[in-house]
Amino acid sequence: MVEATRPPREIQYNMSIELGPDLSRSDNRRPTGPVMVETIQADGWSPGQKKKTELLRLRVPRGPAGLKSALSLILLGRRKSGKSSAGNMILGKEEFQTDARTTRCSAGQGEISGWPVTVVDTPGWSRFGLANPQKVKEELLQSPLFCPVKSKVVFVLLLPVDSFGEQDRAAMEMYLGVLGVQAWENMMVLFTYGEMLRGRPVESHIEKVGRPLQLVLDRCKRRHHVCDPNAADPTQVDLLLRKVEECFPSSLATRSHQS
């Protein structure tokens, strides 16, 4: 698990994230020396102010010739939505703690079905005051910094297969708002705890839950998938990655090095 030096809350985020060197070509997974990057304040703070911030360089394993483009999956969701378990499922190893509350962003890497994949686990929000709202927003805003340069960045919004009301939707919109409206262009919904469907198609669950969930799916252009992070079924990961590739064949959200 890789954790970057903590930058201040004024960080840059847009659909072409100009941060750091191309790190996806290194086979060293450990952070190296700091790199200076220019950052700009994002939504929720005064725009236009620029600062210099030190970050540790993230590296992912080098794959064999012909390896598919590097993929970064940023896992988003409320507390107990299954983010850490889903991250472990995707990477095929116990990278993220599932028995403790996630309070800071962290990343794990691996090669999966020909993809060099980075998974970023993020703190979950709560509409019941069980998490510090400002701290969660600051962590979410930093999440793209954990993605290797030149990787395809996809935001994965985890929603458990259970009730989802207007208050849940409003809380989600408030927290995800720090990423900017363009983040929705590269976001898909991942329904977790798929065993709760008991064999029913997910479309029946979507229809039953109603308008709040429909609005979220509309913002994601109906991109969604179902998984059960606790099931020992390796085919789930292949299906998920294929779904990501199908939904985002040429993603707009990339991290690129500005020379």
TrEMBL record:
* Gene3D superfamilies in UniProt: P-loop containing nucleotide triphosphate hydrolases
Domain of life where this protein originates? Eukaryota
GO molecular function, a single term: GTP binding
Asked whether the UniProt record includes Ubl conjugation among its keywords, one would answer: no
- Cite the entry's keywords alphabetically: GTP-binding, Nucleotide-binding
AIG1-type G domain residues: 68-259
The record's listing under InterPro entries reads: G_AIG1 (IPR006703), GIMA/IAN/Toc (IPR045058), P-loop_NTPase (IPR027417)
- One Pfam match: AIG1
Q: Which family does it belong to?
A: Belongs to the TRAFAC class TrmE-Era-EngA-EngB-Septin-like GTPase superfamily. AIG1/Toc34/Toc159-like paraseptin GTPase family. IAN subfamily.
- Give the matching PANTHER family: GTPASE IMAP FAMILY MEMBER 4-LIKE-RELATED (PTHR10903:SF107), GTPASE, IMAP FAMILY MEMBER-RELATED (PTHR10903)
The name this protein goes by in its record: Transcript variant X1
Tell me what organism the protein belongs to: Nothobranchius furzeri (Turquoise killifish)
Recite the lineage of the species: Eukaryota, Metazoa, Chordata, Craniata, Vertebrata
